[in-house]
Write a structure and sequence with these properties.
about 100 residues, alpha+beta, four-stranded antiparallel beta sheet, globular
């Protein structure tokens, strides 16, 4: 199976750390762009259903940078088990994807 060149990575974080996390990923050139959006998350954690206000990070990157991006999130993130989910980008506007390629290491 041939992996796509690009990926979108989703990561939720507390409001107080989301912007710094996004900035760290961009500064390290692990992501070309990270959108930060307010979300309300409902999830199971340690046997109970939780409902928390969080920030969703949507990072655009190259597939080859997934492992270092995940490691950087794990280093900086306060959650014991942070949500880090990568989805392949199977198509898109070529000039934007060229820009993602140029802006990531």
């Amino acid at each position: 199976m041939v992996l796509p060149e690009f990926a979108v990575v989703f990561c939720t974080a507390p409001a107080g750390e989301a912007e710094a996390l996004a900035r760290a990923l961009v500064d390290a050139r692990l992501a070309a762009c990270v959108n930060v959006v307010d979300v309300q998350s409902c999830f199971w954690w340690e046997g109970t259903v939780e409902n928390e206000a969080e920030r969703l990070l949507v990072a655009k990157t190259q597939h080859r940078l997934l492992e270092p991006l995940i490691e950087r999130i794990r280093e900086l993130h306060s959650y014991e088990t942070p949500e880090i989910i990568a989805l392949p980008i199977v198509g898109g506007y070529a000039p934007y994807l060229d820009w993602v390629r140029e802006e990531t290491a």
